[in-house]
Amino acid sequence: MRFLVDNSLSPRLAEALRQLGHEGIHVGAIGLAQATDEIIFEAAAKARCIIIAQDTDFGTLLAKRRERYPSAMLFRCRVKSTEAILKLLTANL
Fold first, then answer.
1. Alpha carbon separation from 58 to 21, 39, 42, 63 (Å, rounded)
2. Are the CB atoms for 11 and 4 separated by under 8 Å?
3. For strand 50-53 and strand 2-5, is the pairing parallel, antiparallel, or unpaired?
4. Would you say 50 and 1 are in contact if contact means Cβ atoms under 8 Å apart?
5. Quick one: pLDDT band at residue 67, thresholds 50, 70, 90?
6. What is the predicted pLDDT for the residue at 30?
7. Exposed (0-12), middle (13-18) or buried (19+): which is 31, by Cβ within 10 Å?
8. Which residues 6+ apart lie within 8 Å of 35 measured at CB?
9. pTM reported for the whole predicted model
10. How many other β-carbons are positioned within 10 Å of the β-carbon of residue 93?
11. Per-residue model confidence (pLDDT) at position 82
12. Distance CA 76, CA 55 (A)
């Protein structure tokens, strides 16, 4: 699977996804650390990546635009460590 990790999460999450055999890239690695959510959304759609984020803006963008791509995984949990998010993510992939 191809994932684009938003700036709200650590680059370590993208690295961990790569170690698990997925394509994982952090927005900072492709020059989008300061980009708006709209630009990140468009980059993910173009690359056919699933956005992984903690904020709900991407879900709002999907709803407003009525687009099929990209998909977004939003992590709104109490424990926000990279390890906790990775554990939750891998348990459900």
1. 25, 11, 11, 9
2. no
3. parallel
4. yes
5. confident
6. 97
7. exposed
8. 27, 43
9. 0.90
10. 9
11. 87
12. 8
Structure tokens at 7: 């700036």
If phi > 0 it is left, if psi is from -120 to 50 it is alpha, else beta; for residue 52 that is beta
Domains of the chain, by residue range, sit at: 2-92
Tokens of 48: 């056919």
**Quick one: which H or E segment has residue 11?**
helix 11-19
β-bridge mates for residue 5, sequence order:
26, 52
> What is the band of 27 on the pLDDT scale with cuts at 50, 70, 90?
very high
Q: Which tokens is 34 given? A: 């300061």
Residue that has been written with the tokens 């099929």 in this structure: 68
Mark out the alpha helices in 20-56 (DSSP H runs).
37-47
